[in-house]
Write a structure and sequence with these properties.
Distance between the termini: 16 Å
Order of helices and strands: HEEHEE
Oligomer: single chain
Radius of gyration: 27 Å
Number of strands: 4
Strand content: 5-15%
Largest sheet: 2 strands, antiparallel
Structural class: alpha+beta
Number of helices: 2
Length: about 140
């Protein structure tokens, strides 16, 4: 029985690790989406400028003059890169969610097959409790 509990603990820890990984990946996607919106705003501003307009790029503590066509290409390239990264991260999120769901099912299955406090194995069954709430208990 101790071996089953250790295995259950290990599965549970793996599931929690996956949830942390999922959260980090979702945060990465949110950061990318924020960068995407910022760059789309810059792109929109570029359409309002005349071709000869002065554009300055911040490089460290210095503002450097940049040609509009060069700036437009840089922003377009950045947006293309960000969009590819968003797709990659979304696939990663889907993969983590799928693996996490499988691990959750493993934990659930193992819980159903562990002995209860009295040492008898049994299937889980639903029962009605106080105030009409539904719960689960082991049937031995």
């Amino acid at each position: 029985m101790a071996a089953e509990q250790r295995k259950l603990q290990a599965l549970s820890e793996e599931f929690q690790k996956m949830q942390g990984e999922l959260q980090s990946t979702v945060e990465a996607r949110q950061k990318l989406e924020s960068q995407q919106q910022e760059n789309k705003g810059v792109q929109k501003e570029f359409t309002k400028l005349e071709d000869g307009a002065n554009i300055y790029k911040l490089v460290g503590p210095v503002l450097l003059k940049q040609e509009k066509s060069e700036a437009v290409l840089a922003v377009d390239g950045r947006l293309e890169f960000i969009e590819k990264e968003i797709k990659r991260v979304e696939k990663q999120i889907g993969d983590i969610q799928e693996k996490s769901e499988k691990k959750k099912m493993e934990v659930s299955t193992m819980l159903r097959h562990l002995p209860d406090r009295h040492g008898s194995f049994g299937a889980m069954r639903e029962h009605s409790g106080m105030c009409g709430q539904r719960g689960l208990e082991f049937q031995g």
